[in-house]
Amino acid sequence: MSQQARAVATRAQIVLGAAETFEKQGYVGASVGTIIENAGLTKGALYFHFRSKDELARHIVAEQHAISIASVEAIGREQASAIEQIVMLCHEMARQIVHDPIVRAGIRITLELSADEQGPTDPYLDWINTCEQLARRAIAQGDLKSDIDPPRFARFVIGAFTGVQTVSQVLAHRTDLEQRVDDMWMFLLPGIMPTGRHPDIERIRKARSVGAPGVGAGQVAARR
Hints:
Elements: H1 3-29, H2 32-39, H3 43-49, H4 53-76, H5 82-99, H6 101-114, H7 122-140, H8 150-172, H9 177-192, H10 201-205, H11 217-222
Helix pairs in contact: 1-2, 1-4, 1-6, 4-5, 4-6, 4-7, 5-6, 5-7, 5-9, 7-8, 8-9
């Protein structure tokens, strides 16, 4: 293995160890010592790649953001209606939360830092903006009621998803998250779609992305 390849692998190992630590202990509770222990590396290796715990935490949030953007771009290439793509985005985010420690850690760090107004807002704002654009297209395609306000709708959908995944974490450690997201759309779609499109609800509820990348810590870190 070349020196550059070893450096990339070490960086990915640090990020994964840190993500697992932040996910379990939070930003405040996580210590550099625990991160080093979970990563299985030395303090020197960590500080060679990251100057501080704060820099490492913000790097993880940035990776979570990159994973989300990659999914948005992939779903945007799907041969699907705009309303189906909104449903796909929610289910893809749920899948990432369940399977990717980077995503789980990024969410926890963001929420924790937001308590004192230091939290990054880009991941949420980008997701809201994407949902708003899709909502405008869905109205034009006749799949959303014409009197729905896209910005308010987008904030509501992202807020609803955030609440669903939080309750799923508290009550079931997210083991039922996929089902709860499906429940969310089962209740929402009849109220937001024109009556004439109701026969399509079952098909839209089942919309899932086939092209969204399963990006994990090593894959994202390797691109840095």
